[in-house]
Write a structure and sequence with these properties.
The protein has 140 residues and is an all-alpha fold. The chain contains 5 helices and no strands. It has one domain. Helix 1 runs antiparallel to helix 4, helix 2 packs across helix 3 and helix 3 packs across helix 4.
Length: 140
């Protein structure tokens, strides 16, 4: 008995699934940052939360989004981490920049950490999608 590979999604459906699974991972990221912030400085909490969110994103993307990928778990996770180095840089710079400079300049005090981090997490969506599609989970 042979097992068939799952059917690939259309490009549009694939992107929508990426947004959904990425949204779940982003929620995990933000919630874990709130927890880490109870013990750590905001800047470090953002980095640790990114790791938790990244692991969540990898598992969900591999299982539900990039079905054509035949890359091994080890290789795809290494590529996933590499793509995410660029994304975490974007997230950190935007989150810290908003929190420390722009939001105070605008007089925003209420939920400043949450607003800054939420926007920071959203910024790398497109670069991450194309990076993961063409590097982490490329179809062979």
């Amino acid at each position: 008995m042979t097992t068939k590979a799952p059917a690939a999604h259309s490009p549009r459906r694939e992107f929508v699934l990426f947004l959904i699974t990425g949204g779940v991972a982003a929620l995990v990221n933000v919630v874990s940052r709130v927890g880490f912030s109870q013990l750590l400085r905001f800047e470090l909490a953002v980095l640790l939360a990114y790791g938790v969110g990244m692991l969540t994103a990898y598992v969900l993307a591999r299982k539900f989004v990039f079905l054509k990928s035949r890359t091994s778990v080890r290789r795809s996770f290494a590529a996933f981490a590499l793509v995410n180095l660029f994304a975490v840089l974007q997230t950190w710079l935007v989150s810290v920049g908003l929190r420390n400079w722009l939001l105070p300049l605008l007089g925003i005090v209420v939920l400043r950490d949450l607003i800054a981090h939420g926007i920071g997490v959203a910024v790398p969506v497109l670069s991450s999608y194309f990076g993961h599609k063409h590097i982490s989970f490329r179809a062979r």
